[in-house]
Amino acid sequence: MITLNDYLMVAGILFAIGLAGVVVRRNIIVIYMCLEMMLSAANLTLVAFSRFHLVDGAPDYAAQSLVFFTITVAAAEVAVGLAIIVALFRAKQSVDVESVTKLQG
Amino acid sequence: MPSVLFYLFAAITLLFGVGVVVARNPVASALSLVCSFTGLAALFISLDAYFIGTLQILVYAGAVMVLFLFIIMLLDIKAVEGRPTNYATAVGGLLLAVLFTIQIAMVLGGFKEGRIALADQPLKMEATASKATLNTIKDELAEGTLPDAKLMGFTLFDKYPFQLQVVGLLLLAGTVGVVVLSKRDRKEEVS
């Protein structure tokens, strides 16, 4: 039987993979994709909790509204972030995080 | 949803997720992420969140990932690939992921409320129908189907109309910001 814990575990592992990707990879674009993965993992926990917390016999739509807003904000964030990456590439001719060390002491 | 399908889609989500991190070529990473998000959308749909599942495919697997692929192709970043992997960071990242997973597993091991199955928590359409105020929602609930998109829209516009406006404003600000950021300076081009 599939329980709430199974869904939460999948979301946890997905978040862990995204976290590892952010730490390991040096390509900014791939780091960005891993961030998206972590956001989606959080969305999965929200949807799972919404389904298992019934309000009047239907899933809790307050949680799904939060997921809706998260997806919208994430889409806006991706657009702005990718524009910044393009600007960065124009300045540095690279998308490697190690090419951006101006703030390093 | 039968358990087999859950395990199948969970495996698709997680394995392609690993593929995003492991792939050397950013295009392969992006395509892995599309597959991972499709599996995730199937998991959403298995949780009766049809609207969110559709949104995940349309917005994430569709729009956002196409944007990623566009930028990858626009920048043509093949040249930076091919550097040797830094094994210290790779081991560190793997260790972090494993530790995080173990922690989640231990927390969930003690989470007794989470041991309820989907079948023990069936949707009660009649109870929802008696509370529904819109006839179109009521009719579909009476037929025994969950009008997910309608209920979602009703919640958004009934409970969170202000937040919806704010998000619209955010998208507008994002659009303007992208245009400003990616506009090339006239003076810069001359020099």
Q: In the residues of chain A, how many domains can be counted?
A: 1
Main beta sheet of chain B, described?
A: none
Per DSSP E runs of 2 or more residues, the count of β-strands of chain A stands at: 0
Q: Oligomer, anyone? A: heterodimer
Percentage of residues in DSSP E strands of chain A: under 5%
Largest interface: A-B, 72 and 90 residues
Report the average pLDDT across residues of chain B: 88
- Whole-number mean pLDDT of chain A: 91
**Coarse shape of chain A:** elongated
H-E order of chain A: HHH
Work out the radius of gyration of chain B.
Answer: 22 Å
User: What is the H/E string of chain B?
Assistant: HHHHHHHHH
As a percent range, the share of strand residues of chain B is under 5%
Which structural class do the helices and strands of chain B define?
mainly alpha
Helix content of chain A: over 70%
**Quick one: biggest sheet of chain A?**
none
N/C terminus separation of chain A: 54 Å
What would you call the shape of chain B? extended
Number of helices of chain A: 3
**Which topology of chain A does CATH recognise?**
Helix Hairpins
Keywords:
heterodimer, A: 105 residues, mainly alpha, Helix Hairpins, 74% helix, 0% strand, elongated, B: 191 residues, 9 helices, 75% helix, extended
Report what the structure shows.
The complex is a heterodimer of chains A (105) and B (191). Chain A is mainly α and 105 residues long. Chain A has a single domain, classed as Orthogonal Bundle (Helix Hairpins). Chain A has helices at residues 4-24, 28-52, 61-92. Chain A starts with a helix and ends in a 13-residue tail after the last helix. By secondary structure, chain B is mainly alpha-helical. The longest helix of chain B is centred in the first third of the chain and has 26 residues, at 50-75. Chain B is extended and about 65 Å long. The interface between A and B is large, with 72 and 90 residues.
